[in-house]
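PROTEIN DESIGN WORKSHEET
SECTION A - STRUCTURE
LENGTH: 178
TOKENS:
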């Protein structure tokens, strides 16, 4: 997930100050070697961890593309509340969530009490092992999930790979504002 601080600098041509979190430890080396960013603004976290104390600035933009649907129900709700609290008034959030049509060609387990569903059996063999996904079932659920943000746009998109078809990968898009 990526965050930006001081969007007025963007509008005035001064650039952005990026921040981010991820669960992949090898990204630390990438961040440390990128001269265009301050690696101290980026953190490796454990899955389902709180991010509320990682940054000492308020954010103007949050970009969470294809990352939030791996969170349990409780961690997702906590993360959305943390996002809201770490934003300046007027801040924008852009997020995508996996539709329950997504990965339709895979083997799926039952939805567990934590809201995640085990997904395994990639038909093309591209993905090994299991993933655990919190599916979104409707636009109404999407809007509810992103409260307390004010919805500005919601919709969906579908990607298709004719050479390596693995079923639907439909995602919902949510854009909201504090």
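SECTION B - SEQUENCE
RESIDUE ASSIGNMENT:
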């Amino acid at each position: 997930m990526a965050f930006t601080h001081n969007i007025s600098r963007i509008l005035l041509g001064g650039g952005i100050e990026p921040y981010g979190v991820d669960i992949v430890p090898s990204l630390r080396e990438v961040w440390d070697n990128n001269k265009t960013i301050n690696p101290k603004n980026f953190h490796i976290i454990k899955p389902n961890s709180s991010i509320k104390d990682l940054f000492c600035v308020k954010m103007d933009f949050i970009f969470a593309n294809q990352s939030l649907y791996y969170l349990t129900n409780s961690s997702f709700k906590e993360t959305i509340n943390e996002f809201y609290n770490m934003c300046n008034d007027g801040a924008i959030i852009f997020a995508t969530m996996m539709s329950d049509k997504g990965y339709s060609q895979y083997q799926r387990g039952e939805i567990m009490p934590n809201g995640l569903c085990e997904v395994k059996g990639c038909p093309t063999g591209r993905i090994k092992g299991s993933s655990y996904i919190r599916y979104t079932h409707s636009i109404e659920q999407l809007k509810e999930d992103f409260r307390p943000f004010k919805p500005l746009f919601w919709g969906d998109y579908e990607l298709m790979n004719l050479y390596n078809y693995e079923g639907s990968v439909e995602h919902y898009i949510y854009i909201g504002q504090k």
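SECTION C - NOTES
The longest strand covers residues 87-98.
The radius of gyration is 17 Å.
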